């Protein structure tokens, strides 16, 4: 179950929904929701599903060697155009 603030940007819902789906697929009976290894695994899988390596590489090549303000604007454009959160792509680029 994911609780959502009514003001949440719909694009920011994609990652948590993917993350919780991975938990559901892995078997709720294991009760590993508080396990940091399980949490990291779910984040990793959800991140790869939403942001395939080729996409992250293309975004990185597009923004590299540009001023910070330009990078942020380009990342916002990618997020809006491809329906994903800005936070998510930044995490993958790290």
Structure description:
The chain is built from 5 helices and no strands. The protein has 94 residues and is an all-alpha fold. It has one domain (10-93). Helix 1 packs across helix 2. The model has no long low-confidence stretch (mean pLDDT 81).
Keywords:
94 residues, mainly alpha, 0% strand
Rg, Cα atoms, Å? 15 Å
- Our measurement of the CA-to-CA distance between the termini, rounded to an integer number of angstroms, reads 28 Å
The helix tally amounts to 5
What percent strand?
Answer: under 5%
Total domains, how many?
1
Oligomer: single chain
Return the average pLDDT rounded to an integer.
Answer: 81
Largest sheet report? none
Q: Would you list the SSEs in sequence order as H and E?
A: HHHHH
Poorly predicted regions are: none
Shape: globular
Helical content class = 55-70%
Total number of β-strand segments? 0
Structure summary:
It contains five helices and no strands.
Summarize the helices and strands and which ones pair or pack.
Layout: H1 14-26, H2 36-50, H3 53-63, H4 68-82, H5 86-93
Helix pairs in contact: 1-2
């Amino acid at each position: 179950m994911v609780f959502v603030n009514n003001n949440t940007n719909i694009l920011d819902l994609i990652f948590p929904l993917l993350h919780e789906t991975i938990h559901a697929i892995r078997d709720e009976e294991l009760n590993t929701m508080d396990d940091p290894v399980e949490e990291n695994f779910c984040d990793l899988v959800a991140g790869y599903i939403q942001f395939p390596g080729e996409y992250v590489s293309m975004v990185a090549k597009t923004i590299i060697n540009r001023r910070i303000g330009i990078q942020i604007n380009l990342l916002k454009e990618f997020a809006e155009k491809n329906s994903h959160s800005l936070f998510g792509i930044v995490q993958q680029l790290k």
